[in-house]
Automatic annotation (TrEMBL), chain A:
Similarity section: Belongs to the TRAPP small subunits family. Sedlin subfamily.
Gene Ontology process terms (BP): endoplasmic reticulum to Golgi vesicle-mediated transport
Source species of the chain: Alligator sinensis (Chinese alligator)
Protein's name in the database: Trafficking protein particle complex subunit 2-like protein
UniProt xrefs under Pfam families: Sedlin_N
Major localization class: cytoplasm
SUPFAM superfamilies according to UniProt: SNARE-like
Subcellular location: Cytoplasm, Perinuclear region; Endoplasmic reticulum; Golgi apparatus
From TrEMBL, chain B:
Gene Ontology molecular-function annotations: calcium ion binding
Domain (EH): residue spans on this chain: 134-218
Name of the molecule in the record: RalBP1-associated Eps domain-containing protein 2
Gene it is expressed from: REPS2
PANTHER family noted in UniProt: EH DOMAIN (PTHR11216), RALBP1-ASSOCIATED EPS DOMAIN-CONTAINING PROTEIN 2 (PTHR11216:SF64)
Source organism of the structure: Alligator sinensis
Length: 144, 566
């Protein structure tokens, strides 16, 4: 099981993180996933502020267990423009290594920059790019 | 000519191979399956190279000739809007050659519905292929944005430019995604051509592909523009651009793959060969005109030149293109084809509206437009084109209704009112008809005022004031009178109220005017008949309902009556 969420702060500095893109492979527990993502944002913000100068941290968030009952790991990634990538992975998927997570975030970031290159895309819009979807799908298929 | 026409078709139609993929494959599969025997004979007219399609293995080899390649490049590319189509086509073609109905079946199963387009759209008809005239047009557009052809068009500039096409932003965004291959936020000439072509195709109704068709790849476009026989270059581009999914599509081309050891490297080769092979069998399978075109194309080394020449001839007038294409492919193509062609020409011109002259600015819907088949429309357009040449192209369907609407109310106004008086008892019950007709009259009259200024108001007034009398007279003036009245009044009203709509322009020339007047009167009468028939049905329904109510009431009465009587 894996879920990927792309969140971006609104242009205003208020921490209104709203999702630009959310994707999950198994579609059950969507709500819980959304909740998880939003709760993890707090940790992400915490890390951002803690990092200070270091703006980009590829692997920003690693939760072994958010709750004892919740068996998943949440990974985070932040770009220079404060766009946050959150990935939720089942802990049962032990095959996923840190490097793989990093590479996945890198791919996400690259695809995101490609989207930004599109003049028809306004930063802050929800992402409806088919290419992006395909990339994410292929990535998730590799993991799941 | 086949190649020539397809190119033209591309230009005019911008058929989108995405769907054409399946269609092509489907068609080919059908063709292949059905005409496996004919394939070989059909192959012969294509020319010497494809002369021996007996074994598909031979086909690729035979297609290895550079001639066919150069000539087929664009076609191949076009046909392969995505390798999908190519593969499928190849598979089907190959299957045909190699009597591999399995592939055909595969392609058939894969292919979608649009058979008619398939029949008409072969490789050469690939809507994803850019014709020379289209390329020139794109080039000119590029120049307006960026004089330096080797430089880029920035994203903002391109965005403003493409926004003029009035496509929805998400689609434009997708088109950009497809065309900006290097994702640098700027468009090279090739990328711009691809994007423009996609926009034109989308305007013509073709769905956007998920992947950039091969013929729209920048590498392909650049190489194609150079008219090269850079097989290697093409192959490289093909191989590079080959998406992962292509390999999945290779199931159709398993045979081909067997021939080539390295699928990725050999794909381009195979593609090329297949393309040629596919194209040729397809072309052969197609109409005789196609065959002739093929032979011509196959014969000449400069197939592109042929195409260009053919396209060049027709460039000045896309209608000719359309006409040629329709002639060539009418049998195969559906009516949608000519429509799409006309749309494509119009889309190029109007859709973009970049303030430049489109390559061919003819009024599109005239000749090939399926809707313009009616006499009225033709007449209208002739009249319109006579009078209005400013490039204002009235939407075909809009014209006739207006005059008719203007006429109908007049007729309707006259009809119901005139009924009670005259002895010509129409289907209507006088009272009801009067009421209904008057009801209709009013709404119609409401419509009429904006349209008919002169005569209709007067008529309406008369009708309103003296509904039962004068209208009756009006209506039942004998047909001639009606005709005359209708001729004059509608013409006058129409001409006066609808200056733009010059459907009844010929008030000036008497003989032609009379003829037209008569025809218009006939039309009006037909419209009136239709309206009256509708009225009749409505009234009859009302009558039935009333009858039912009456029966119900009577039964109630009977139930009550015995009590009282007894």
């Amino acid at each position: 099981m894996e879920r990927i969420a792309l969140l971006s702060p609104v242009c205003s500095p208020h921490l209104q993180n709203y999702p630009l893109y959310i994707r999950s492979v198994p579609t059950e527990n969507e709500l819980k996933f959304h909740y998880t993502v939003h709760t993890s944002l707090d940790v992400v913000d915490e890390k951002i502020s803690a990092m200070g100068k270091a703006l980009v941290d590829q692997r920003e968030l690693y939760l072994g267990l958010l709750y004892p009952t919740e068996d998943y790991k949440v990974y985070g990634y932040v770009t220079n423009s404060k766009v946050k990538f959150v990935m939720v992975v089942d802990s049962s998927n032990t095959a996923l290594r840190d490097n793989e997570i990093r590479s996945m975030f890198r791919k996400l970031h690259n695809s995101y920059t490609d989207i930004m290159c599109n003049p028809f895309y306004n930063p802050g819009d929800c992402i409806h790019s088919r290419a992006f979807d395909n990339m994410v799908t292929s990535m998730m298929m590799q993991v799941c | 000519m086949r190649y020539g026409t397809p190119a033209e078709i591309h230009g005019a139609k911008c058929q989108i191979p995405h769907t054409a993929l399946d269609k092509n494959s489907f068609k080919r599969a059908d063709e292949g399956d059905k005409q496996q025997e004919t394939k070989s004979p059909s192959m012969s007219p294509i020319g010497s190279p494809p002369a021996s399609p007996s074994s598909y293995q031979r086909v690729p080899l035979s297609y290895g000739y550079s001639k066919s390649r150069s000539g087929h490049e664009q076609k191949h590319g076009a046909s392969y809007e995505s390798r999908h189509s190519a593969h499928q086509q190849d598979g089907s073609a190959v299957g045909n050659y190699g009597a591999k109905s399995a592939h055909g079946q595969l392609s058939r199963s894969l292919s979608a519905e649009k058979e008619p387009q398939d029949s008409s759209s072969n490789y050469s008809d690939d809507p994803w292929r850019i014709t020379e005239e289209q390329r020139d047009y794109y080039l000119n557009q590029f120049k307006t944005l960026q004089p330096d052809l080797n430089s880029f068009i920035s994203g903002t500039v391109a965005k403003n430019f493409f926004t003029k096409s009035k496509l929805p932003i998400p689609e434009l965004s997708h088109i950009w995604e497809l065309s900006d291959v290097d994702c640098d936020g700027a468009l090279t000439l090739a990328e711009f051509c691809a994007a423009f072509h996609l926009i034109v195709a989308r305007k013509n109704g073709y769905p956007l592909p998920d992947k950039l068709p091969e013929t729209l790849l920048p590498d392909y476009l650049q190489t194609a523009s150079l008219k090269p026989i850079h097989d290697s270059a093409l192959f490289d581009s093909y191989s590079e651009s080959l998406p992962v999914s292509q390999q999945t599509r290779d199931f159709n081309r398993t045979e081909l793959e067997t021939v080539c050891e390295d699928p990725t490297n050999s794909e381009p080769l195979i593609l090329f060969d297949v393309m040629t092979s596919v194209i040729e069998p397809k072309t052969s399978v197609e109409e005789v005109s196609d065959k002739s075109a093929l032979t011509q194309a196959a014969n000449s080394d400069d197939k592109q030149a042929l195409k260009i020449s053919t396209t060049a001839k027709t460039i000045p007038k896309e209608f000719q293109h359309l006409a040629v294409k329709t002639v060539a492919h009418e049998t195969n193509t559906l009516k949608a084809r000519p429509r799409s062609r006309s749309y494509s020409s119009t889309s190029i011109e109007d859709a973009m509206k970049k303030g430049e002259e489109p390559p061919t600015p003819p009024p599109r819907p005239q000749k090939s437009h399926s809707r313009a088949s009616s006499l009225d429309l033709n007449k209208i357009f002739q009249q319109n084109t006579q009078a209005v040449r400013s490039g204002w192209l009235p939407p075909p369907p809009a014209l006739p209704p207006r005059p008719f609407v203007s006429q109908v109310p007049l007729v309707a106004n006259t009809e119901p009112a005139t009924q009670p008086k005259s002895s010509y008892v129409d289907f209507r019950v006088p009272e009801q008809t009067e009421q209904v007709s008057e009801i209709e009259l009013h709404p119609q009259m409401n419509r009429v005022p904006p349209q008919t200024e002169e005569s209709s108001p007067t008529k309406k007034e008369i009708l309103l004031t003296q509904p039962p009398t004068k209208p009756i007279r009006r209506k039942f003036r004998p047909e001639n009178q009606m005709l005359e009245n209708q001729e004059l009044s509608p013409t006058i009203s129409v001409t006066s109220s609808l200056p733009a709509v010059k459907s009844h322009h010929p008030v000036q020339k008497q003989s032609s005017k009379q003829k037209r007047a008569i025809q218009t009167a006939i039309r009006k009468n037909k419209e009136a008949n239709a309206v009256l028939a509708r009225l009749n049905s409505e009234l009859q329904q009302q009558l039935k309902e009333v009858h039912k109510e009456r029966i119900a009431l009577e039964t109630q009465l009977e139930q009550l009556r015995p009590v009282t009587v007894l």
